Amino acid sequence: MQPSRQQSVATEDFSRLLDRVHEIGRGVVLASARDVDRDARFPSEGIGALKGLKLLSAYVPAELGGMGLDVIQIAKICEVLGQYDGSVAMIYAMHQIQVACMVHHGLGSSYFRSYLQELILQQRLIASATTEVGTGGDLRSSVCAIEIREGRFQLVKKAPVISYGAYADDIMATCRRSAGAPASDQVMVLARKDSYTLEPISGWDTLGFRGTCSSGFVLTASGSAEQVLPIPFAEILSQTMHPYSHIVWGSLWLGIATDAVNHARGFVREEARRNPSIPPTSSLRLAEVSSVLQGMRNNIAVAVTDYRRMLADGQQDMFSSFGFAIRTNNLKLASSTLIVDIVSRALLICGISGYRNDSKFSLCRHLRDAYGAALMVNNDRIMNHNATMLLTQREG
Amino acid sequence: MYADKVRDILTQHGRLSSPVDQLQDTSDLYNAGLTSLATVGLMLALEEQFNIEFPDNMLSRKTFASIEFIVDAVQKLVDK
User: Which helix (H) or strand (E) holds A221?
Assistant: First the structure.
């Protein structure tokens, strides 16, 4: 991985861009959120609007013609989207993780450079097929193997979950390097829509994040051998996919939590107006949840700032250290737990108005989405990894 | 036209140290004992009475500094 040469977009320009994201959020995203959630359908309006702003290629460096936003700015966009619809935010975040894998690890390849330029022009939505039937959710092992012959590859992967797979333009998939390679010797390949097929094997009727349409498929893909990212997946995971995922997910969960607290604030304010002289009891709960929310926000801010600095330094051994992996895991554990805590506190404040689906203070979707956070990469699995790695740590 | 109502609300929620009817429209309310915490109740009551919402940028010390300023702010928000 090269040290990051990206220049962050000027603060003023970025704040204008964020205003536009808020506009889209308040507009098409919010308008379709209820529908998307109820019918577990793909939020095509919201994603379409993001494409309109060229936000799908926002992380592509300016030298290739992209917006060249940095990870702090991408995380902020995820947070803002989370305030309006968790599913739109999650789809955007997952797409950005794939883009980051290519930006961080593919710029040395002429194929990926030109793909990223195509991404800018066509605003292609990229999904990911990392988990596999038979590996028990372990990203670091694959059953399927890529076969490369005469510069062409072939791959068949049985994926229990490919979020928005049916609506994606392309899919990044992990697999073993070759038929003879061990389960952990993995590479990552970009499968293109015109040369893959998806055979559905399971649907997506879940408690929350219903609009992500994370059904299961058998992915059958072929293409040029250049579509394989040129470095081992283990490195892509430790340097990019692992930290980037937990940063953008944490950020969108923060957005959901922020919106829940905004609902609570609005509710308390309405109560307070009726009797301005005596603060309502719920205002004490608001004070409490506001401090928890700030803690969540600060935690994410530190993680994303650290990660950006590490990218700029380009010190590869830092990424593979246990300390960094533990901190990244802790970020995930904390933010996925805090989102449930915060939304639950907000629900207690809004009371029955929050519990109703048809009230302006409704927190039903927030709460259902919130419970997904601990399960996508299960917290127990993460905690087990940390429990092992922590045995090597002497301090910090 | 809003001054009388503003004075009523100030009497109820301002927790001032001097009686409101002894104040001029231009008198400094902070000198008359208005605290920043009391402005919260004042703001909420004004919002309820006039069916308005104070945006963040108007929630400054200056907005509540005198009856005249409050009336101006209310007028502006009602006209919105």
Answer: strand A216-224
Per-residue confidence of chain A (396 residues) as pLDDT tens digits? Answer: 666 655 557 778 999 999 999 999 999 999 999 999 999 999 999 999 999 999 999 999 999 999 999 999 999 999 999 999 999 999 999 999 999 999 999 999 999 999 999 999 999 999 999 999 999 888 999 999 999 999 999 999 999 999 999 999 999 999 999 999 999 999 999 999 999 999 999 999 999 999 999 999 999 999 999 999 999 999 999 999 999 999 999 999 999 999 999 999 999 999 998 888 788 999 999 999 999 999 999 999 999 999 999 999 988 888 988 899 999 999 999 999 999 999 999 999 999 999 999 999 999 999 999 999 999 989 999 999 899 888 887 776
Instruction: Tell me the β-bridge partners of A196.
Output: A221
CB contact under 8 A, B41 and A274: no
Give contacts of B5 with chain A, Cβ < 8 Å.
Answer: none
Task: Kindly list the residues from chain B whose CB atom is less than 8 angstroms away from the CB atom of residue A277.
Answer: 12-13, 41
Contact call for residues A278 and A360 (beta carbons, < 8 A): no
End-to-end CA distance of chain B: 17
| Distance of alpha carbon A285 from alpha carbon A289, whole angstroms | 6
The CATH homologous superfamily to which domain A11-124 belongs is Acyl-CoA dehydrogenase/oxidase, N-terminal domain (1.10.540.10)
Whether A272 sits inside 8 A of B13 (CB atoms) is no
The CA distance from A262 to the nearest CA of chain B, in Å, is: 14
CATH architecture of the region A128-227: Beta Barrel (2.40)
Task: List the domains of chain B with CATH numbers.
Answer: 3-79 (1.10.1200.10)
Q: Do A269 and B41 touch (CB under 8 A)?
A: no
Location of each CATH 1.10.540.10 domain in chain A: 11-124
Q: Can you tell me the distance from the alpha carbon of A56 to that of A124, in angstroms, rounded to the nearest whole number?
A: 7
Task: Please give the residue of chain A at the shortest CA–CA distance from B15.
Answer: A277
Q: Is A19 exposed, middle or buried (0-12, 13-18, 19+ CB in 10 A)?
A: exposed
Residue A180 tokens, joined? 């003879």
By C-alpha distance, the chain B residue nearest A272 is: B44
β-pairing verdict for A170-176 and A126-129: parallel
Q: Contact B13/A277, CB-based, under 8 Å? A: yes
Q: Which of B5, B35, B44, B53 to mutate to test the interface with A (most CBs of A within 10 A)?
A: B44
| Angle formed at CA A205 by CA A204 and CA A211, multiple of 5 degrees | 70
Cα separation, A149 vs A152, in Å, equals 5
CB contact (8 A) between residue A277 and residue B12: yes
A269 to B44: CB separation less than 8 angstroms, yes or no? yes
Note whether B68 contacts A: Cβ–Cβ < 8 A: no
Q: Could you tell me if the ipTM is greater than 0.90?
A: no
